[in-house]
Structure formats: structure tokens, C-alpha cells
Amino acid sequence: MKQNGVNVASDFLLHLAGTGVRGGMVLVSCDDPGALSSINEGESRHFARMVEIPCLNPGTSRKQGYDQMGFELSEELKTWSCCAA
Prior knowledge:
The protein is built from five helices and three strands. It is of the alpha/beta class and 85 residues long. The longest helix has 10 residues, at 10-19. The radius of gyration is 13 Å and the shape is flat.
């Protein structure tokens, strides 16, 4: 989802961070830190820091992003993780 979608879903995501998840859950967020393609700036790393969840930042390779997705980490920590692209 775009960074605006993270803002819309933030209430639900805050509850998930507090209560935990049963299986791996990864949110892939397409950020726009410089507001190059949207009206407002958005960056998921600040949101992930606020709710104390892991935030992974893959490089440019699609395979690297998939390998670094974080399902295993999410299951181990019993919380969701964020993959900021």
C-alpha cells in the first residue's frame, strides 16, 4: 500500500502491534519521502519505530526484497513487520 494507506490503516495496525499475530504478517509500504508522486510526504520507518515493529528496507533488487520480506522474523516475534519499499 502507499503511505496514505498506512495512515488509514494505522488504528488497526496499532492494535495488531499490541496484541500480536498468530502467523507471519508483513506490510509492504511504498513510501514517497520526497513527495515526488503524491501530495504529501510519507515514510513508514517512523511509523514502525513508533509501534516498535521491525522495518526492513530492501535494496533495488526484486529478489532481495522478497528474500528479506520478514515472514520468519514476524512469526518469531509474534508481531507484524513492515517492508518499506
